[in-house]
Amino acid sequence: xxxxxxxxxxxxxxxxxxxxxxxxxxxxxxxxxxxxxxxxxxxxxxxxxxxxxxxxxxxxxxxxxxxxxxxxxxxxxxxxxxxxxxxxxxxxxxxxxxxxxxxxxxxxxxxxxxxxxxxxxxxxxxxxxxxxxxxxxxxxxxxxxxxxxxxxxxxxxxxxxxxxxxxxxxxxxxxxxxxxxxxxxxxxxxxxxxxxxxxxxxxxxxxxxxxxxxxxxxxxxxxxxxxxxxxxxxxxxxxxxxxxxxxxxxxxxxxxxxxxxxxxxxxxxxxxxxxxxxxxxxxxxxxxxxxxxxxxxxxxxxxxxxxxxxxxxxxxxxxxxxxxxxxxxxxxxxxxxxxxxxxxxxxxxxxxxxxxxxxxxxxxxxxxxxxxxxxxxxxxxxxxxxxxxxxxxxxxxxxxxxxxxxxxxxxxxxxxxxxxxxxxxxxxxxxxxxxxxxxxxxxxxxxxxxxxxxxxxxxxxxxxxxxxxxxxxxxxxxxxxxxxxxxxxxxxxxxxxxxxxxxxxxxxxxxxxxxxxxxxxxxxxxxxxxxxxxxxxxxxxxxxxxxxxxxxxxxxxxxxxxxxxxxxxxxxxxxxxxxxxxxxxxxxxxxxxxxxxxxxxxxxxxxxxxxxxxxxxxxxxxxxxxxxxxxxxxxxxxxxxxxxxxxxxxxxxxxxxxxxxxxxxxxxxxxxxxxxxxxxxxxxxxxxxxxxxxxxxxxxxx
Length: 702
What we know:
Blueprint: E1 4-7, H1 10-18, E2 22-25, E3 28-31, E4 41-45, E5 51-53, E6 80-82, H2 87-98, E7 102-106, H3 111-123, E8 130-133, H4 141-149, E9 152-153, H5 155-187, H6 201-217, E10 222-232, E11 235-241, H7 248-257, E12 264-279, H8 287-298, H9 302-314, H10 330-338, H11 340-346, H12 383-387, H13 391-405, E13 412-423, E14 426-437, E15 464-475, H14 484-492, H15 501-509, H16 519-528, E16 532-535, E17 538-541, H17 543-552, H18 560-574, H19 580-604, E18 618-621, E19 629-633, E20 636-639, E21 649-651, E22 653-654, E23 657-658, H20 661-670, E24 676-680, E25 686-694, E26 697-701
Parallel strand pairs: 1-4, 1-7, 7-8
Antiparallel strand pairs: 2-3, 3-4, 5-6, 8-9, 10-11, 10-15, 11-14, 12-13, 12-15, 13-14, 16-17, 18-19, 19-20, 20-21, 22-23, 24-25, 25-26
Helix pairs in contact: 3-5, 5-18, 5-19, 6-16, 6-17, 8-9, 8-14, 9-13, 15-18
């Protein structure tokens, strides 16, 4: 029987097919007999996730309706279904699996790849097949053939699937319950929006919100330093005394103590030390370091980087991009060192090779697990192929190539000079830097240099200098908002935000929020939910995001620590040290606690019973033109077809009573509201009435 190879998607299947002689069929490829597969084989593919969890209503009709009374949603067992529009491909795979005895999982070599394979395999109902695992880091022909020659067993892969399935179900449970709970409770307060809750996305939004609150609460404060301007025989330089005072008086007292009130005095150079410093080449790239670098250099979003790197991987130009490693093994170093000169020519980066000896900074077999760092493949493209790449792919390919070539370059060298100038017993400190050898930095000619210390004139110990001393005032500056690149780094290193030492350690161990492969997707999700917006590469929380964060404040959903603890246990499942049943039981208890705690938390968080509507929220179809939607605007509600002539509008406040979105919805859909309490007449008396809509105008009904 011919083995069946299941790839994650058509492009991956094509790369496998390129390594063998194949004929294209409907939904699969037929491989001719060859030394690795003497009988030949079939290569088929998923289209990402062919199989998904069923909707809540499939378990119980009452879960089809959003209501607080029907929560929590906690099925006793979980059911899966073929995703809509994907049944044709699923049935092709099912037929092939029924007719074979050996199945090869050739999906991506990570947790999600295992999940995609096993969820398809189990959904087909096929059992008792011999399952093998393809485990490769590149789609080059040689590596594909070598991988199929040395297939692994599926024990480790099955554990990864258990881990991925537990994560998938936990995300579903948190999303289904949390989103309904918060949306419905906020709806009672007049906010007709869906507030999507996510196990990883929600604490990510909260960390951005915290940074924004720090910026908004920041009050600049003055500080005072003492600066000296010195004139030596061969030039001038500046220095500062070791003082940074909140009050000017402290600086004045120091000047009085050294008899420097008039600011002019002779001084001499007390110490002069020059040391040579080295900066080694930067480490090889993981996905997150590449995303951060590309955002800094070209303002690319993390998602754009991942998408472009995936294309380069499928073009066989770079190794597997979804990696968290910054090391390679001696095997990869072997082919890289043998081709250095060719790589140099390819990107026109000539330099004298400093070493071909592997250094632990880059080459360490013990630090490579599933995947090694992102490096160029053995395949050497033509200069024409590189020129033909889209600009973003070309930039990223060159970034990977130059970073890899850095391994073979010299250290960056500079001389650092430290000067201590004595003026009447008060010491002033100065640092100067002189570049000696650009080394590996010459590979990155367009990189902006960090702010350098100014060069110093030629000086000598005990040299006399003329000094002009003055108090200088500075202002403290607010923390800076995140860029998209910094957001990736923040998610990875958010352990430093945890107050509890144990939580901080867990966050470091699991590398923060999300995984290397999912962080960019999480950022895109919270953008799509309108919790954050990115303008000129600066990330800020929207009005809706702020409202969500106010609602979850003090809750475990706002805590990266909770996510880290879950992620830590998920990793135990992947290693065979934990149980998905235990994990999902814990998630169930967490959700039940949410149901009990959140209504009271909203009150203790100071969320008012009636809240202003989010600007731009859609409420109902316009009753006048029937084309547009009525949305909230500043100070009113109006039709989205206003620019095309629709004049329907409603005031946000009518007779000193704020009209909520629910009131407007009643007017648009039923023509009248229930009785509204608290209108105020012209003579100041309060009264109750309902409102009716007649020919687009509001009328009172008593």
